[in-house]
Amino acid sequence: MPGWLGRLGAGLSRMGQRFEERRAQAEAEADGPVGVPPAGVPSGKPAAGTGPADAAGTDGPARDIVPAPPAYAPAVAARPDPAAAVPWGVRVAAEAGWRLLVLAGTLWVVMKVISTVQLVVLAFVAALLITALLQPTVSRLRGIGLPRGLATVVTAILGFVVMGLVGWFVVWQVMDNLGNVSARVRDGIEELKRWALDSPFHVTESQINDIAENLSATIGTNTEEITSAGLTGVTVMVEVMTGILLAMFSTLFLLYDGKKVWQWFLRLVPAQARPGVAGAGPRAWRTLTAYVRGTVVVALIDAVFIGLGIYFLDVPLAVPLGVFVFLFSFIPLVGAVISGALAVVVALVTNGVFTALMVLVVVLAVQQIEGHVLQPFILGRAVRVHPLAVVLTVSAGGLVAGLGGAVVAVPLVAVTNTVVGYLRAYSEEQALRRLAATHVGMPPPPPGGGVGAGGPERPETA
């Protein structure tokens, strides 16, 4: 309809124009001299309506002219761009969504690769933790004049010998007290049975015997599963020994050539990101070193005081339990709960309910002192992580890589927190420097200036 109305209006306009031209031509022929073209008609061109085309009833050259639509014709709005028709919030969500999908896919691939070579990754991470613990000793030995190779060998041998002696001492204590513990466990079970019979829970002896018979029947019917679990345990022991050898080998080379390994890694980083990574690396290493040292000190204090409490309460296996407390203290929060529960259970089945309650009081007291005094004072704020983040991190690490993942999860989060905080501060400072250089008409600073080149460092938060 708009197009038809436009064509109709154009035709009427042309008809009116021709009438006006013919009237002007007639008046000019009647009044003007011969040979002068009518008014409004260019010289050298025939007037409209006088040519052969008009005589034949056609428009001639005017047919090719497309006139503008009249003012009363309705306007037709053009269709908008599809991207402009989508709301801004939906477009932002879509842009963020596909990037998050790419990151999630990349993380999934990385986790698959890590799970495939899990033994190698855990061995290397353990080597990093041991190196962070032993590196200060190497620096001190080099400071007194020992060559780097000799200082590395002496430190590595001493460290591995101490770890081996601790493991041997635990096994020796367990085997030496196994007979005594078995007898005391039987006595403790009998005491628990008498306590249950005399308790207000109205437990009868027949119910206790039924529970014991069901437990024996379950063990008897699952003999094959227990045997296969034992074979699996042998396989796990072989993998553990392999991982220990890999960790020892990696620790030796990290102690000797750690700086060269870091420089080689920096060459793999893109040139634009290299200054920021070069500045974040030493700070991450300082955070890891502080975490490992502080955790060792805190774990040692926990093991000594809980072990002394267990020893004075006459609970067997006090020394092995203290060593277990030390080892499980490397798993924050969760490890303390597991080691404390183990000590309470041993006290319960060997010495009775009262001794178990006293052991529980000792464990809770030491853990409260650790959480509110030792960790803030020894670890400091730079490597502290919120308890909720610790629990979630340890759980995720345990699900992904078992006990080793639970051990390395928290230091990984602490180091990541330090690196992200530094890179954010570095990016902000570089942006401010470029802005200042633009305002004063100076060229921007070269890469590596500011924070990455030893400039002022922003405070890191946990």
Automatic annotation (TrEMBL):
Annotated Low complexity bias: 41-60
Q: How does it sit in the membrane?
A: Multi-pass membrane protein
Chain spans, region Disordered: 19-62, 438-462
Pfam families on file: AI-2E_transport (PF01594)
Organism domain of life: Bacteria
User: Which keywords describe this protein according to UniProt?
Assistant: Cell membrane, Membrane, Transmembrane, Transmembrane helix, Transport
Task: Please provide the Gene Ontology terms (biological process) for this protein.
Answer: transmembrane transport
Where does the protein end up? Cell membrane
- Mind telling me which residue stretches traverse the membrane in this protein? 150-171, 234-256, 290-312, 318-338, 345-369, 389-415
Q: A GO CC term?
A: plasma membrane
Recorded family membership? Belongs to the autoinducer-2 exporter (AI-2E) (TC 2.A.86) family.
UniProt-recorded name of the protein: AI-2E family transporter
Q: Which organism is it from?
A: Streptomyces roseolilacinus
